[in-house]
Amino acid sequence: xxxxxxxxxxxxxxxxxxxxxxxxxxxxxxxxxxxxxxxxxxxxxxxxxxxxxxxxxxxxxxxxxxxxxxxxxxxxxxxxxxxxxxxxxxxxxxxxxxxxxxxxxxxxxxxxxxxxxxxxxxxxxxxxxxxxxxxxxxxxxxxxxxxxxxxxxxxxxxxxxxxxxxxxxxxxxxxxxxxxxxxxxxxxxxxxxxxxxxxxxxxxxxxxxxxxxxxxxxxxxxxxxxxxxxxxxxxxxxxxxxxxxxxxxxxxxxxxxxxxxxxxxxxxxxxxxxxxxxxxxxxxxxxxxxxxxxxxxxxxxxxxxxxxxxxxxxxxxxxxxx
Length: 322
Ligand code: 13P
Ligand code: SF4
Description:
Blueprint: H1 18-29, E1 31-36, H2 41-46, E2 49-51, H3 53-62, E3 67-71, H4 74-83, E4 88-90, H5 99-102, H6 106-115, E5 122-126, H7 131-135, E6 139-141, H8 146-151, E7 159-162, H9 165-175, E8 180-181, H10 194-203, E9 209-211, H11 217-222, E10 225-226, H12 229-238, E11 243-247, H13 252-259, E12 264-267, H14 286-295, H15 304-320
Parallel strand pairs: 1-2, 1-3, 3-4, 5-6, 5-7, 7-8, 9-10, 9-11, 11-12
Bound molecules: 1,3-dihydroxyacetonephosphate and iron/sulfur cluster (SF4).
């Protein structure tokens, strides 16, 4: 297959089978391919591990590969680099960012903490943030371990939760722990509305709704289960239902259909024509992944003082959620 306008070289065998090309390069580079559940199907299908942010962090921590090809967004690859400073970490497209991460620039957080020094905040950062924000935090959490991390926070400290207000509010409901919330959100998950979920429920009576905690309160209230993308797989496997409404980024459906082929998955709808896909996650393509492994770039680099400060809160999280 020849893809117009894409910069990649033919394999040595002369074919353009990208899956074969990537397998060969992977061996040569002693590389591991980690992919998030929202990646395009072709990438998920060649990855060594596909999962949520927590699973990906654990895999990044334990790998003995020389190179990590991280197929996800920038903050995920950065997390892998923070805990693997001597490994080469590459991302197919360096522009694959995250609206949630962008809502909390490190300089703004530093200024806020300075302005509210009297609060002596214990900062819990959702992993969807930059290395600079992680470096200012006490501990990191993901949607898969947020309750546990918040429950482990010192009881006598004020907590500032950054950057996702929806996930933060969900954890407050579950733990009963009061927290001050940074007002950030994910541009994909806030597109799902109570109206759109009610409508799809009417169209599929009996189908349970599973939603990501980055969704708004109104949507979470209508869901039968709210959980991380990895826990969605378990929920769907265990549910007695034949059809399930999945309220998160569209890439999730590939993993679900592949692992649970006997069930039907209905993508969560929005009120407008928004496709439910994260434009950042979708910047990575298999062609770009092949190029990255071949050229060992774009490479993730982090200034050492920031990396060092960002490492401690990630390791604390990994220790706390074992
Ligand atoms: P998970 O860790 O649940 O996969 O979520 C990551 C993410 O970016 C959700 O938008
Ligand atoms: Fe960020 Fe939202 Fe995309 Fe997840 S889906 S990477 S939170 S913009």
